[in-house]
Write a structure and sequence with these properties.
Layout: H1 2-11, H2 18-25, H3 29-32, H4 39-63, H5 70-84, H6 86-93, H7 106-117, H8 122-140, H9 150-161
Length: 165
Amino acid sequence: MTAARGVLDEDGASALTMRRLGQDLGIRAPSLYKHVHDKAALEAALIEDSFFELGDALHAALRRPGRSGPVTGVLRTYRHLALAHPHRYRLATSGRLPRHLLPECLEEWAGQPFFFAAGQDPHRSQALWSLAHGMVILEIDGRYPPGSDLDRTWRAAAQAFAPAA
């Protein structure tokens, strides 16, 4: 898994092949099948790992919201992790999610902080996560206009979802 994360982080999901992983580990690619069923299982394991990392960080942010509040804490943490590992983020959030290969309720648990930050409203929760995902993908892809103050944009997003005082 460490070698697979290294390939993913360095070169992206398209570089994550059994052949490449075998080369990096100094073994023949067929030997990897003793450890992982196939590439889909490897990707699912990486997604699972990413969901656990994200969920742990988001739950911690929710427990310690600070003066800025839970919405800001959750958004700040989500953005930080996505930008720190953009290839992992893309693997975990792009395309169809292989839910049948993931532990039951993992996706729900990892996203639960959005539910609590959004006042326990499932629709506001999905809207908040959608906003965060869209903003972070735009940032990863460099789609914001040059000179954009993205920290300020993220603060405005948090304010839009903050509970009314």
